[in-house]
Amino acid sequence: MGVGAGGGRVSAKTPRLTATERLRRMLAIVPWVAAQPDGATIDEICARFDLDRAQLLESLDTAFMVGLHPYTPDALIDVLIEEDRVQIRLPDFFTRPLRLTAEETLALLVAGRSLANLEGDDVDGPLVRGLRKLSATVGTDRAVDVELGQAAGALVPVIQGAVADRRRVALDYYSYGRDELTHRRIDPWRLHAEQGAWYLEAWCHSTGDVRVFRLDRVADLEVLEEHFEPPDEPVGRSIFTPAADDPRVRLDLAAEARWVAEQYPVEELEELDGGAIRVTLAVTARPWLERLLLRLGPAATVVDAPDTLVGVRRDAARRILQRYDG
């Protein structure tokens, strides 16, 4: 195993790749170089993967540290650079047939079908053919069917174009937590699927901060002529990111309501008798808590809540009854 002397140093004039960019390139570079019987020259690799010499050497400088515990030489990727030629030898575990657990197989199928459902996708392309083969390993060609919503799916190629072209977007967005429709101008930089829905990460000019938008809650969208420059290292945001000063509520949940801890981010969880749990949740908007408590009914008991959230379920139920009485 070896790396050329000084191979991982990048000059001050060379733009550094972000961690995400380095990972994407290495996932492509390593198997390609390893598949070449005599390796490949640095110039060949740079031309193929759109890198300059310093960027490539910086990326290769970390590749030889990848492997499996206990990280002995036979369990690490072997990178050798001699006379401007790069050779990569992969440990034996890379050449073994992939063995997935049932959970891993289903997760891969869900992710693949999410992409395959995009409007305009080739119905008999390599992705779909691969998913058919993978489905066969779990017993049926229809093992998993993913539907992310027609309205959201139709927006995906439009958003992808805006992200690629760095175009600003104007949209009307329904905020589920606050139960209101707002108009936003955003700089979009990442689109992804999670928990059965499409999400868009962007800079929101209305709030002056990074926000995550769920596509099936977009009422109207327009790609503007304005361009923007995304940050070098976009700040990733989870679907739900509470602020430090958001109120917290503590709930006792019966066994049949444990799904709350799986669907929503909880800050504390305590096991109780009979499969029940006690959880602490951050509440960014009162309407969200109202809907949750009405949905849970007697399966949830409010143990502790700030004054602003006392009587939430009672007040919401009273408003609903007034609508029926009216």
What does this structure look like?
The structure is a single chain. The chain has 326 residues and is of the alpha+beta class. 34% of the residues lie in helices and 25% in strands. A five-stranded antiparallel β-sheet has the order 7-6-5-4-8. A hairpin with a 4-residue loop joins strand 6 and strand 7. Helix 5 (102-116) runs antiparallel to helix 6. The radius of gyration is 25 Å and the shape is globular. The chain starts with 18 loop residues before the first helix and ends with a helix.
> How helix-rich are the residues, as a percent range?
25-40%
Helix vs. strand class? alpha+beta
Q: What is the percentage of strand-forming residues?
A: 15-25%
DSSP strand count: 12
Q: Termini, distance in Å?
A: 79 Å
Inertia-based shape: globular
Sheet having the most strands: 5 strands, antiparallel
- Unreliably modeled segments: 1-13
Q: Helical region count?
A: 10
Overall mean pLDDT score?
Answer: 77
Secondary-structure element string: HEHHEEHHHHEEEEEEHEEHEH
Rg result: 25 Å
Order of neighbouring strands in the sheet with most strands:
7-6-5-4-8
